[in-house]
Amino acid sequence: MALNLKRKRAGDLESRKNPKLDEVMDVNSENEEHGENESAHEDSEDSGSEGEEWNGLGKDVEMQDARNVDPSSSKSKNPAPTGEEVRAIRDATDLYRSSSFKLQIDALLPNVRPKLSRAPPLEKFLLKLHTFLMQLPAVEPQHPLEAARKLLKKGVAVPYCLPLPIEDTNWKVSFEKPEDITLVGSWPNKVSVKAKDGLKYGVDVAVQMPDGLFQEKDYLNARFFQKKAFYLATLANSIRNSKSGLNVDVSYESTAGDPRLTKLVLTPKADGSATDFTKLNARVCIIPTISTSSPISLHRLSPSHANIRVNSGEEGVHHPSPLYNNALLTSYSPKLHLLAMYNHIQSIPAYADALTLLRIWANQRGFGEGSKLSVKGFENAGNLWPALLELVISGEEPSSSGAVNRKPLGKGLSSYQLFKAALSCLAKHDFIKNPALVKSTATHKFPASEYQEHCSATLVDSSSLVNAFAYVPLGCIDMIRHEAWKTLQTLYSSSLAIDPFTDVFLHDHRDVATRFDIVFQVDLSKAKARKLSPHESLDFGSATNHLLYNMNAILRKALGDRIHAVVFLQPSSTSDVPSTRPLTQAYPSTSSTIFVGLVLNPTHAFNLVHLGPAADSEDTAALAEFQELWGSKSEMRRFKDGRIAESVVWDVKTADERSHVPAMVVRHILQWHFGLSEEHVQTWQSAYDSVIRLPKEIATKYVRGAGSAMGFKGAMQAFDRLVKQVKALEGQIPLSLVNISATSESLRYTSAFNPVPLTQSLAASLPPNARYLQPINIVFEFEQSAKWPDELKAIQKIKLAFFEGIATGLMNSVPGTKASVVLGSGDITDANELMDKAYLEIVTPEGWAFHARIWHNREATLLDRILDDHGPMPHVVVPKKRKQAERKGKEYLDAQEAKEVYDRRFIHAPRHHRAVAALSHQYPAFSGTCRLVKRWFASHWFLGGHVSEEVVELLCAQIFVLDGKYVGSDADIPENTLSVVPSTKERGFAMIMRFLSEWKWEEGGLYVCLYGPKKEGEGEGETGAKKVEPKASSGGVWTVATEVDKDGKVWTKGGPDGIVARRVRALAGATWSYLQTIENGTFNVQGMFIHPTQDYDFVIQLNPFVLPRYVHNIAANEGLLGKGKFANARAKDQDQDIVLPGFDPAKSLFTDLQRTYSDTFRLFADPYGGDAFGAVWDPTLKEPRPFRVLGGFSSVPVKKESEKAKDKGLVALNDAGVLGEIERLGSGLIKAVVKQR
């Protein structure tokens, strides 16, 4: 078996490093804070001391070396694999997914466990602590308040819990030395795992309090917890005394913020003594416990028992206290858990490694401690993971309800198989509806029915009676099930684009921006539950815990099937609110801020109506419950199908607002049940919306002035009307129109701004810098006919005749329509007569503009003849020299350019449009994600000039289509699959930013399954394995392939080049880092779209008054969009044609400068109303070089170093001259040219 492999060459391999190890330490946790300056000798000791635990790597590496040896070589030192080794390889593949996966696990485990070479000081300290505690003097019984006052004078507060003792209390507290001191938890079993964010290892010490300190009735009204608190405070007072000689800082810490679960934390001081264990990065936690032989009877601690007897207003009625009882049971459990874990480790070889893998997985997803946002309820759930593994291995106790119980898997599985089985159990078992009691040799003391009746969720191990899910909110349990399912999908995935090991164990998945569809920041300082229950508050141990648990349960109920999970997030320890507290502070600190994350179910998330009970329903309790849940929002309504039912209806004005419905639900519930107004509940959806919307004042004018529908719906309706109008001209044009294809982003829902019409009257009411009309590109396809000429130049002329006929027909048949034939392509030199350059510009009476082109498939054949090796006339033999000359001739170069444009414009563009439009209908968040990402690329001066809009859409598509299984399928996408892809544009945007910041395009391209699942072998070798070595002057370095574009260069041939691609990655990384500031409250959405200009050599500032698209500027000055200087005489404007589709002088200037000075500088601009260009000089031009004619750039002679120096005839860039030329070229448009370097 692979587990039993021994290391034959351990000495040779100790110096070897697995390439994944550095990544492990970088991602899994911070670097070691202590011991970085230790000598190499100590490091070698560390590796040697852990060599026995980390077996298997040496032999596997040796076998890999053996496989790489040429068997025919007689000089080979390594023999071929033996039969035993081959069987080990096969076993590793069967038990660990693959042999490489096993090697990665073997390399990971030693790096997340403590270095045992640094443990001796800790062991000496523990011995010293044990000796000290066993010698402590007794304290006579005294009144609890009197005892607390005495200790407070000494600087130690007693952490009494509610209900607090009073003066009339007739019981007393006392102290005696411990009966027993035991090292418990993960440390003695050597399964401790490094925590996130550099937090310390926990070394738990169970101090057993003598039975004589307690009485039989101490389970009532927190008497046990008060005596335990005094015992703990007495220990703290003794240990912190300098006479103790322990030299540690002593503080309190309460598990899950519950004062009843307070423990002592001992942190070492760095004094260099023999007991100084600071290099181990550990802390000692003292946990008071009680023996099973104590006077308190265990049967009094069942979930159904009422052990909090306070005046609740109901005479003689006492409610069960399951959480209180569970907290008391935890005082019995540490030693039981220790022994149970030890037995499992001894009897199950893979148990320790499986438990370690499970904890690593949990830590990477926030189900543990950390200074970043962690899932509420799991910050101290250390006993949950052993219980889960035990449930998988031993199975479940038989249930009286008849439910199917989990069967035991046995003890012979590998660590990876156990880990995967535990995830499967988490994903599939509903711990809320079906309590899970691990099968044990003895019958569980409390039946499952009691847990089901009184506990929200249940998982009880076989060795104790403690419920591991007692403190976890229900929405957070939903989240861990969701994460388990996602991980299983990753492990089962066969896609080579995903490295399962890296994604499961190395990546930090705690960032909220890519994890949740909607994130809220809630200020709890003014929160007050509408219905207060003093008993429940006492049961939870603190008012804050009760409030949060109740809030989560109500939100989960209200959101219903709109969500997969509603999660509460808080860091377990921060500098402002640390998990530990000084001894003078009796109660734990609580943060007034909590984050709420929603994982939406897109199938139901955005429904506008929530139906309740019918009006004639006999279930009056359900009707009252619905009205109580929704308050004023609940109303009786009659629906179109005749039903009359209680319901909740959410009003939205636009399609974009529909994505806010889940946030509306959360805001209403928090307002109705907890009194939190909108100012206390912050979300960032509206801020994201604002960056892809027109300014409010301009948008209002559009709404008033546009007579037809606006937005994507209006554009689609206008397109459909135009199609009908053109097809109605059948008798007026020589050929029948077969099809009209759309190729515009405005018709596939991905344009950054909603498309809007612009009529003459509306334009007159707008300022000149808000009159831009975006044309919509379409393609006409006529029937096949022999009447077409067989010559490229003639075909272009015939197209003009078709355009003229269509224009005349439209203007005659549709009053108010304007149509004109436009020659020239704008951004391509017009000298190429083989290229499709003309288009028909149509402006409808409603104000929509279209640019139509004609696709004739014969053009491709004629262009291929010119580009073919045999030339346009294959039957004529052409000499080789003449053939080479023709390849450099104008006709060949023009044909090459024309063919490229033809393929992109008439073949790929319509096909891409249809695929992207389908995705917009299939995934609700896809459209918004594309719009935000395009806005980001544009605001950082990449879009259009360097990065095409189509490649941005492909980048966004890859996070939605995944493996392409459901692309183009009529089958409904499973909800679990939909939950993996983003359901809101905000989450989609964050995922793209993370991808761009991490994408190593130099090592290989990206394959997007835009047209369906990738066939076997497709994309490999073409994109996946091909490495790019970018040059500064090379073309596009991104390779984004699809099924119809195997090379991945259709949309990236023109850019981005190496310089731009690296800048995209840098800015995406900065944006991704800025997204993390959501946690500290300094996040501002607009800050991600403000472009830094300090890196440019010079900046060209434009006059915003003459920019028709200035209204789209990310930071437009609203004062420049008002009437003021822009107020024109209405009569004069009505006489002039001020609607100019596609007219953008800034874009024209950018294109001219980019073409003219392509060898001089690199130009950047924002196509969406940017009022500045940025440019970077070619650094090689500033270096002196010999003068030559037609050098390609404006140059100036280099000044001689001295008058006597010889003139070498060197020249350098004439930057002042170039800047002057630019200013003259843009006269009237350029306001200033600012030289920054």
UniProtKB/TrEMBL annotation:
Locate the compositionally biased regions of type Acidic residues: 43-53
**What's any one GO cellular component for it?**
CURI complex
Ranges of Basic and acidic residues compositional bias? 10-23, 31-42, 59-68
Which ranges are annotated Polar residues under compositional bias? 70-79
Nrap protein domain location is: 203-346, 351-507, 514-674, 705-921, 923-1090, 1094-1233
One biological process term from GO is:
tRNA export from nucleus
Chief location of this protein within or outside the cell: nucleus
Compartments where found: Nucleus, Nucleolus
Q: Name one GO molecular function term.
A: RNA binding
Q: Which UniProt key words apply to this protein?
A: Nucleus, Ribonucleoprotein, Ribosome biogenesis, RNA-binding, rRNA processing
Q: Where is this region: Disordered?
A: 1-89
InterPro entries from the UniProt entry: NOL6/Upt22, Nrap_D1, Nrap_D2, Nrap_D3, Nrap_D4, Nrap_D5, Nrap_D6
Sorted alphabetically, which PANTHER family does this protein's record hold? NUCLEOLAR PROTEIN 6, NUCLEOLAR RNA-ASSOCIATED PROTEIN
The record's comment on protein family reads: Belongs to the NRAP family.
**Protein name (Swiss-Prot/TrEMBL):** U3 small nucleolar RNA-associated protein 22
- Which species does this protein come from? Ephemerocybe angulata
